[in-house]
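pinned: reference chain
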Amino acid sequence: MTAELIAEWRDELVELTGSWGYLFNRPEPRVVFAQFIEGLLAELPKKNGWTLAERAGHATADRMQWLLNGSVWDADRLRDAVRDYVVEHLGNAEASLVIDDTQAQKKGTKSVGVAFQHCGLAGDVRNCQTMVMLTYAAGAGHAFLDRRLYLPEEWTADRERCREAGVPEETGFATKPELAIAVLVDALAAGVPFAWVLADSGYGRDPQLRAFCHERALPYVLGVPVDLPLDGPPGKPRLPAVKRADDLLHYAKVRD
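pinned: its structure tokens
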């Protein structure tokens, strides 16, 4: 995202962020919210409270940090507004809902959900937060739609830690595929138009997610690991019994 592109879009961006001013109960966070969004889109070598504040001309990072930590606004209402905007501009009955997760590397133990866990960004296990994401892929573009923060069991089993971090009491442990089902339920309830649900094998191996798509008659293409157990042909001369996903490769080769 270049500075030139942001400049070209500035009027539309100002109009868009201004139209979401109803999310905030005071004028100060409305202004900082617009600056925060511009900063996230800008070409900054590193994006944190200090660099975003410096770009906005603030003397300290206090206003940026207050926007996220102290000001009163509803993130789910913002999510709904973004979803409506995406559907308005990209909505297509042939679009796909794409499930994946992303990570934010962290230091320390206070960030909600932070733990030593698989980090797709680095390809190994490290201290990070994980978010299950739902994006919208259509012919006119690809955009964010929804999210759920993954809380490892070491968090949900420690209610005092959850209370200190502001995690609601009713929040229990949920697997990543269960969080994926939650964002799909919300997309269906909102009437988001789409033709396919897509995900990689990290989600495709989960029988609960596959069953959800099947029961709701949602067309889906989910990757599966090669060792996924299958019930298949019992075996014939020159062809093995199908007991797992990669056994199907023999049949595919024979049938060209």
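why pinned: The radius of gyration is 22 Å. The mean pLDDT is 91.
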